[in-house]
Write a structure and sequence with these properties.
The complex is a heterotrimer of chains A (202), B (299) and C (171).
Chain A lengths: L2 H12 L5 H13 L1 H18 L12 H7 L5 H9 L9 H8 L11 H26 L5 H27 L4 H27 L1
Chain B lengths: L21 E8 L5 E6 L2 E8 L3 E8 L5 E6 L3 E7 L10 E8 L3 E5 L4 E7 L2 E6 L4 E5 L3 E6 L4 E5 L3 E6 L4 E14 L4 E16 L4 E4 L2 E11 L4 E6 L4 E7 L4 E4 L4 E3 L6 E5 L4 E7 L4 E6 L9
Chain C lengths: L1 H9 L3 H23 L2 H18 L9 H22 L10 H6 L7 H11 L2 H12 L4 H8 L3 H20 L1
Classes of the chains: A mainly alpha (202), B mainly beta (299), C mainly alpha (171).
Chain lengths: 202, 299, 171
């Protein structure tokens, strides 16, 4: 057994995972090699103390305030984009949108799943983004509890959008799946509109 | 019909900030169909319709609660409590307002509760987390809240109710109703026959109990929440139900079930005249029969 | 509860992230303290870890547990801090503050206290490998990748660390 091989087996030895013949081979090597015997002894000596090391060590002072100060909440606009998980249809590519929407009906059954969802999302994207941008600007005027309520509900809707989108991608021709996806998109717009009203009028 | 008063800008009444808790009462003449905007962020706003062509406001504003204001013309009023500081803990103010029964009423609040009684006009009520309650027979009810509960016990031909977390309860629905929420439960019972209804929630459970008119249409939809429909034994309706991963259960005696692959499950009651469509991605759907007393016959 | 906290934090809910902080700070701080040896720097690094975790929350896909993901992120933060500090020429061969462990909240008399102190006295490179391998359970390949060293170097440092620790514990 080479010294390299011996060293690689030390952990297994200490953990009691080695078969008997390997343990014998190690014992033979260790009796002939001082360096390897020292390595083995060190590992064995440390095994006990290592097992009793605490997993957690609380910091002496509360570090959360320092963290909280540095966390800037992600802007809604960014999260709306992330949640959509769709390559953003910015002004320049509205042409793509227009082309998708004007596709003749006969092409619909063979349209790939992702395109159907994308086309539906494209209808809601401009308004969604516009509202999210407004809300980001007005955010500072909202009470924290209201911000939390908006976040909470937006998260519920975003999850629904993702799930209904995934279902629609699998079966893009199903009218009920389209309706469910459209509804979840519309609900996001409605929530953002409601939030914008609160920000502006209260 | 009374001749409309010439435009008369009333001076700002009660504009001086109240020192300790003070209660003021003001009465002003108002057009029978005046439009009234009320603004009270924290506390209670109670509006009651009466037969007088006037508005009477009783405002109780505690120290630090802000400034009561009121102004406008006989056809358009604006009143409320303007809080001095944003974001600080604002002590609650109480507004009790008597308004002409057919007035158009618009109320905004943050955490203040809003209640409207005996109104016959159009209502537009919005809160963030204040509870909204409506009784009487308004013509139109629009109510919106983030996480305040909304309870409409009113027979209004047109209702648009929306919440995020807040539970929505609509009793005596009839006519044209839209109710939607993100996660608040929605319970709609109709006294008269509902003509057009659209009830949708993302994760709030949806319950409809009542009758749908013969030429009516009801649409119920959730993303991930159970939907329960309880209809009277005499209901004639076609129910098209699509539940992608939930169970569809019918406890309605006499419902004829048709299941065609690739199509929604269809239940036909009687002549099938009313159209009811139900959709949920992850919720289950249950149909049951209302018994004679109006209670559902299943647990 | 933790899973929903993660989802809510990903949606921007800071209260949910605060809950995650409270659930994991002990573990992350222990890692930073043992790797760094210096309690002030360990506190700073712990904060850096959570700030970075907040920024990177969107990349957590649930393929591993959140604790594992956070731990890996912490290792990367500490090791890349060490690398950039080295580039800035800061003295890295501090042997840490053994006294810190005498003040630690969870204080067991005897063997493991000596071990904590001994770890803090190790030279920086050996200390990092020992903590990551023997305390935290990373493989030499993983350590090599995170630390930017060869896995053979990692093995050599481990054995050196163990021999030094044994000497210190026997003294």
């Amino acid at each position: 057994m080479t010294c390299d091989a011996f060293r690689d087996l030390i952990n297994g030895y200490v953990a009691g995972r080695l078969p008997a013949d390997q343990m014998e081979a190690m014992a033979r090597h260790a009796s002939a090699c001082d360096g390897c015997r020292d390595d083995m002894d060190a590992a064995v000596a440390l095994a006990g103390p290592l097992a009793t090391l605490p997993r957690d060590i609380a910091p002496e002072t509360d570090l959360w305030p320092g963290v909280a100060r540095r966390i800037v909440p992600a802007p809604w606009r960014q999260r709306v984009l992330a949640a959509a998980a769709v390559l953003l249809l910015m002004a320049g590519s509205s042409v793509t949108t227009a082309v998708l929407m004007r596709r003749p009906p006969s092409a619909v059954p063979s349209v790939a799943g992702a395109e159907v969802a994308q086309a539906i999302e494209a209808r809601y994207a401009p308004r969604t983004l516009e509202l999210a941008a407004v809300l980001d600007r007005e955010r500072k005027d909202l009470a924290p509890a209201t911000v939390a309520a908006i976040e909470r509900n937006l998260a519920v809707i975003d999850r629904a959008i993702a799930e209904s989108r995934a279902a629609l991608d699998k079966d893009p021709s199903d009218p009920d799946l389209r309706a469910l996806f459209r509804t979840s998109q519309a609900q996001r717009v409605a929530l953002l509109e409601q939030a914008t009203r609160i920000a502006r009028e209260l | 019909m009374r001749r409309a008063w010439p435009f008369l800008l009333l001076a700002m009444l009660g504009a001086s900030s109240l020192q300790a808790q003070e209660t003021v009462t003001r009465t002003v003449p108002a057009d029978g169909a005046a439009s009234i905007r009320v603004f009270n962020l924290v506390g209670t706003t109670r509006i009651v319709g009466w037969s007088s062509d006037s508005i009477r406001v009783t405002a109780t504003v505690p120290k630090g609660g802000g400034r009561f204001f009121m102004g406008g013309s006989v056809t358009a009023f604006k009143m409320g409590v303007e809080a001095k500081e944003q974001g600080a803990e604002i002590p609650p103010s109480t507004l009790e307002i008597r308004v002409p029964r057919l007035a158009r009423i618009w109320v905004k609040s943050a955490t203040a509760s809003i209640s409207v009684e005996n109104a016959g006009g159009e209502l537009d009520l919005a809160s963030v987390s204040g509870r909204i309650t409506v009784t009487g027979s308004p013509r139109v009810v629009m109510a919106e809240s983030m996480d305040g509960a909304i309870v409409i016990s009113a027979d209004a031909p047109v209702m648009r109710i929306k919440s995020a977390d807040g539970a929505i309860t609509v009793r005596h629905a009839g006519g044209d109703l839209t109710a939607s929420s993100v996660s608040g439960a929605i319970t709609v019972t109709s006294a008269r026959e509902l003509i057009s209804g659209r009830i949708e929630s993302v994760t709030g459970r949806v319950t409809f109990e009542g009758a749908v008119s013969a030429d009516g249409a009801l649409d119920l939809q959730t993303h991930e929440a159970p939907i329960t429909i309880a209809l009277p034994a005499t209901q004639n309706a076609t129910l098209d139900i699509t539940a992608f991963s939930g169970k569809v259960v019918s406890g309605f005696p006499g419902a004829r079930r048709t299941a065609t692959p690739g199509q929604p499950v269809r239940y036909t009651l009687g002549s099938g005249s009313a159209r009811i469509s139900v959709r949920s991605l992850k919720g289950g759907v249950r149909i049951q029969q209302l018994d004679v007393k109006g209670d559902s016959n299943a647990p | 509860m933790v899973e929903s906290s993660v989802r809510r934090a990903q949606a921007g809910d800071q209260d949910a992230f605060a809950a995650l902080y409270r659930a994991h700070v002990g573990r992350i701080h222990a890692l930073c303290l043992r790797l760094e040896g210096d309690s002030a720097r360990a506190a700073e690094l712990t904060q850096d870890v959570f700030v970075r975790a907040w920024q990177r929350l969107g990349t957590f896909r649930g393929e591993s547990s959140f604790a594992t993901w956070l731990h890996r992120l912490a290792v990367n933060v500490v090791l890349s801090d060490r690398r950039s500090a080295f580039r800035r020429g800061r003295r890295l061969l501090s042997t840490g503050e053994p006294e810190r462990f005498e003040r630690a909240g969870e204080c067991h008399a005897g063997a493991d206290l000596d071990l904590e102190g001994a770890i803090a006295r190790l030279p920086a490179g050996a200390r990092a490998v020992f903590v990551l391998h023997d305390v935290e359970g990373y493989t030499h390949e993983e350590i090599a990748e995170s630390a930017g060293i060869a896995s053979g170097t990692s093995k050599a440092q481990l054995f050196r660390a163990r021999r030094l620790l044994r000497e210190m514990l026997n003294a």
